[in-house]
């Protein structure tokens, strides 16, 4: 698992070390330079990978983009180290007061320095852009965790010009070959370090070398897509104790949330979470998932959600819906049982229009009444899942996945065992229905903010789908970016619904009683969904049903990798 900590948490954790005189900047800069040396030796340029033969450092060119703070200091000290190894180093300073010791170190090592704020240099702007883009490697040390808002002034102008020119050259050449390898120092300058927003120009990094701990913006969309490969440099920060909101009671006041601000599951975490049957299990103990999905107009969504649940290894699927849709579902997945009965979780709403859309879809009374029937079933399941119906009437509370049209049928408040799975447009609609002025673009620009808002308003766990998936539950936030962009295809979200439903059904009781459990399982579902997208057709287009069909192979591989004993039981 990757854990990310806010700028304030990192600062609080570094304070006691700095007070003891720990040379954090020297360690950070040395580690940064070491990574850059390895990248240069592998011949990395413009996103090309390390198959190339080892290169000599002498003659390589590095440009440092240097701001006014310690982030620039890191870049300057790393540059001094590179210069001593024979790299031709040029610092481009966007502030008249770069880190003084770093600047002296670079000069002593033979590096050159250009002050972009000097009037003579401002006139040579295009020459500066050319110099930067002719380098083998660019170290982006403009701002790190001290950043506030979009990059301003000379730094903002320079990055806007560089990012534009880089994108233009890559588009004209059809590849990034020949363009410099960009290494972000601590964070790509200009991202929202704590919230993953991208409020202004940012130079996309091929690699980010981050110090002490991952930062939320490296994991959260949209900024996560600008960070490249993230390398963590361990600085022995104690992030588990006082000062970062943990259990300890040291001299520093707790700041920010308890523990990590944002987490990301990795492949190795899945074995711990995946329901593996034991020798005494039977289909009912493995979890029964009730699926209310599809209408005569959209039967495919039901097939996809049911297929994914079956392929994910659920004990049983009970399909609930109109007879003609049930026939389609059973002919595609004969395992599905089209009958009422007890379930351990619900998957609701895929392929069912929203309440307010229903009247607009006109195709005669049959479709209307089929839709009304689905809405009725969803309302009932939600009443059980949200504890609106008493247990002696409806049986014990069970978790639910709430997708597509079911989002419009949500009660005012839900427990966190109810997981909403909107995409950005659906989340905006849900929030507008509750009085917020927000549209799809707002959600895409600040996914964390709006997913949190939806969690606060509804109480439900919120899984916001997109190029990266953000999951917000009580006290926990996850961000997963595991799938290829090929997953952006109709029906792919329905597969996620069925897959997550299978996980919730297997862990039903725990999910109802542990407030953060649904969020972790939702993150696991997003991870497995993403991996299945790749496995379905590595590097090429995928159809949603292929993603569902790839699930058994992905799960088996993860169980084998994770814990050698679990998959054999
Ligand atoms: N934590 C650790 O363990 C370690 C931390 N270390 C390093 O320290 C870094 C943090 O250093 P930091 O505190 O000096 O802040 P930093 O990010 O360099 O920028 C601050 C200056 O930038 C400016 N500025 C701000 N916003 C701006 C904007 N939008 N657009 C333009 N300019 C903007 C603003 O200056 P001003 O504009 O006010 O003059 C401000 O003073 C951290 O990221 C890591 O690299 C390592 O060395 C050791 C271990
Ligand atoms: N650019 C992307 N990269 C990776 N995954 C993506 C991308 N765009 C969308 N996805 C994923 O594809 C799925 C699309 O779901 P959704 O929008 O609900 O489609 P549908 O409603 O047609 O099933 C989600 O799981 C989402 O996270
Ligand atoms: K930076």
TrEMBL record:
<dbReference type="InterPro" id="IPR004443">
    <property type="entry name" value="YjeF_N_dom"/>
</dbReference>
<feature type="binding site">
    <location>
        <begin position="144"/>
        <end position="150"/>
    </location>
    <ligand>
        <name>(6S)-NADPHX</name>
    </ligand>
</feature>
<dbReference type="Pfam" id="PF01256">
    <property type="entry name" value="Carb_kinase"/>
</dbReference>
<comment type="function">
    <text>Bifunctional enzyme that catalyzes the epimerization of the S- and R-forms of NAD(P)HX and the dehydration of the S-form of NAD(P)HX at the expense of ADP, which is converted to AMP. This allows the repair of both epimers of NAD(P)HX, a damaged form of NAD(P)H that is a result of enzymatic or heat-dependent hydration.</text>
</comment>
<feature type="binding site">
    <location>
        <position position="186"/>
    </location>
    <ligand>
        <name>(6S)-NADPHX</name>
    </ligand>
</feature>
<dbReference type="Pfam" id="PF03853">
    <property type="entry name" value="YjeF_N"/>
</dbReference>
<feature type="binding site">
    <location>
        <position position="493"/>
    </location>
    <ligand>
        <name>AMP</name>
    </ligand>
</feature>
<comment type="subunit">
    <text>Homotetramer.</text>
</comment>
<feature type="binding site">
    <location>
        <position position="366"/>
    </location>
    <ligand>
        <name>(6S)-NADPHX</name>
    </ligand>
</feature>
<comment type="similarity">
    <text>In the N-terminal section; belongs to the NnrE/AIBP family.</text>
</comment>
<feature type="binding site">
    <location>
        <position position="423"/>
    </location>
    <ligand>
        <name>(6S)-NADPHX</name>
    </ligand>
</feature>
<dbReference type="InterPro" id="IPR017953">
    <property type="entry name" value="Carbohydrate_kinase_pred_CS"/>
</dbReference>
<keyword id="KW-0511">Multifunctional enzyme</keyword>
<keyword id="KW-0520">NAD</keyword>
<dbReference type="InterPro" id="IPR036652">
    <property type="entry name" value="YjeF_N_dom_sf"/>
</dbReference>
<feature type="binding site">
    <location>
        <position position="140"/>
    </location>
    <ligand>
        <name>K(+)</name>
    </ligand>
</feature>
<feature type="domain" description="YjeF N-terminal">
    <location>
        <begin position="5"/>
        <end position="243"/>
    </location>
</feature>
<dbReference type="InterPro" id="IPR030677">
    <property type="entry name" value="Nnr"/>
</dbReference>
<feature type="binding site">
    <location>
        <position position="71"/>
    </location>
    <ligand>
        <name>K(+)</name>
    </ligand>
</feature>
<dbReference type="InterPro" id="IPR029056">
    <property type="entry name" value="Ribokinase-like"/>
</dbReference>
<keyword id="KW-0413">Isomerase</keyword>
<keyword id="KW-0479">Metal-binding</keyword>
<keyword id="KW-0521">NADP</keyword>
<feature type="domain" description="YjeF C-terminal">
    <location>
        <begin position="266"/>
        <end position="558"/>
    </location>
</feature>
<feature type="binding site">
    <location>
        <begin position="465"/>
        <end position="469"/>
    </location>
    <ligand>
        <name>AMP</name>
    </ligand>
</feature>
<keyword id="KW-0067">ATP-binding</keyword>
<feature type="binding site">
    <location>
        <position position="189"/>
    </location>
    <ligand>
        <name>K(+)</name>
    </ligand>
</feature>
<keyword id="KW-0630">Potassium</keyword>
<dbReference type="InterPro" id="IPR000631">
    <property type="entry name" value="CARKD"/>
</dbReference>
<keyword id="KW-0547">Nucleotide-binding</keyword>
<feature type="binding site">
    <location>
        <begin position="70"/>
        <end position="74"/>
    </location>
    <ligand>
        <name>(6S)-NADPHX</name>
    </ligand>
</feature>
<comment type="function">
    <text>Catalyzes the epimerization of the S- and R-forms of NAD(P)HX, a damaged form of NAD(P)H that is a result of enzymatic or heat-dependent hydration. This is a prerequisite for the S-specific NAD(P)H-hydrate dehydratase to allow the repair of both epimers of NAD(P)HX.</text>
</comment>
<keyword id="KW-0456">Lyase</keyword>
<protein>
    <recommendedName>
        <fullName>Bifunctional NAD(P)H-hydrate repair enzyme</fullName>
        <ecNumber>4.2.1.136</ecNumber>
        <ecNumber>5.1.99.6</ecNumber>
    </recommendedName>
</protein>
<feature type="binding site">
    <location>
        <position position="494"/>
    </location>
    <ligand>
        <name>(6S)-NADPHX</name>
    </ligand>
</feature>
<comment type="similarity">
    <text>In the C-terminal section; belongs to the NnrD/CARKD family.</text>
</comment>
<feature type="binding site">
    <location>
        <position position="301"/>
    </location>
    <ligand>
        <name>(6S)-NADPHX</name>
    </ligand>
</feature>
């Amino acid at each position: 698992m990757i854990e990310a900590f806010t700028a304030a948490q990192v600062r609080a954790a570094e304070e006691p070390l700095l007070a003891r005189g720990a040379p954090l900047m020297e360690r950070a800069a040395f580690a940064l330079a070491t990574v850059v040396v390895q990248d240069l030796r592998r011949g990395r340029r413009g996103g090309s990978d390390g198959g190339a033969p080892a290169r000599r450092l002498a003659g390589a060119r590095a440009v440092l983009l240097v701001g006014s703070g310690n982030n620039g200091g890191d870049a300057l000290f790393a540059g001094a180290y590179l210069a001593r190894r024979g790299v031709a180093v040029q610092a481009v300073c966007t502030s008249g007061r770069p880190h003084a010791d770093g600047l002296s170190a670079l000069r002593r090592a033979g590096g050159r320095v250009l002050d972009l704020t000097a009037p003579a240099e401002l006139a040579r702007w295009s020459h500066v852009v050319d110099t930067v883009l002719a380098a083998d490697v660019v170290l982006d040390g403009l701002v790190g965790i001290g950043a506030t808002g979009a990059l301003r002034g000379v730094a903002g102008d320079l990055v806007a010009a560089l990012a534009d020119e880089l994108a233009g050259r890559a588009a004209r050449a059809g590849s990034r070959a020949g363009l410099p390898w960009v290494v972000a120092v601590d964070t790509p300058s200009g991202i929202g370090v704590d919230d993953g927003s991208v409020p202004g120009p940012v130079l996309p990094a091929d690699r980010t070398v981050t110090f002490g701990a991952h930062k939320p913006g490296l994991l959260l969309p949209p900024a996560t897509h600008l960070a490249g490969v993230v390398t963590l440099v361990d600085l022995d920060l104690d992030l588990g104790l006082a000062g970062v909101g943990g259990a300890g009671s040291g001299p520093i006041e707790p700041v920010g949330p308890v523990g990590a601000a944002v987490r990301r599951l990795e492949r190795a975490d899945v074995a711990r979470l995946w329901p593996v049957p034991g020798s005494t299990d039977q289909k009912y103990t493995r979890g029964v998932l009730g699926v209310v999905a599809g209408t005569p107009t959209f039967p495919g969504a039901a097939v996809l959600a049911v297929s994914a649940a079956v392929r994910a290894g659920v004990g049983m699927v009970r399909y609930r819906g109109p007879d003609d849709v049930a026939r389609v579902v059973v002919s595609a997945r004969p395992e599905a049982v089209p009958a009422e009965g007890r379930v351990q979780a619900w998957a609701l709403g895929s392929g069912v229009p929203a309440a307010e859309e229903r009247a607009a879809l006109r195709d005669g009374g049959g479709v209307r009444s089929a839709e009304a029937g689905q809405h009725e079933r969803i309302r009932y399941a939600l009443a059980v899942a949200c504890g609106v119906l008493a247990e002696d009437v409806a049986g014990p509370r069970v978790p639910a996945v709430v997708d597509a049209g079911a989002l419009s049928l949500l009660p005012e408040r839900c427990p966190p065992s109810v997981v909403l799975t909107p995409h950005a447009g659906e989340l905006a609609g849900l929030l507008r229905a509750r009085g917020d002025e927000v549209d799809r673009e707002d959600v895409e620009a600040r996914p964390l903010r709006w997913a949190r808002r939806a969690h606060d308003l509804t109480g439900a766990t919120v899984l916001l789908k997109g190029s990266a998936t953000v999951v917000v539950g009580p006290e926990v936030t996850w961000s997963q970016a595991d799938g290829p962009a090929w997953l952006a295809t109709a029906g792919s979200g329905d597969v996620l619904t069925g897959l997550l439903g299978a996980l919730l059904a297997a862990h039903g009781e725990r999910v109802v009683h542990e407030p953060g459990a649904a969020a972790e399982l939702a993150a696991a579902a997003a991870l497995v969904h993403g991996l299945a997208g790749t496995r379905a057709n590595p590097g090429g287009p995928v159809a949603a049903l292929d993603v569902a069909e790839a699930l058994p192979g992905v799960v088996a591989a993860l169980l084998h990798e994770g814990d050698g004993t679990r998959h054999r039981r």
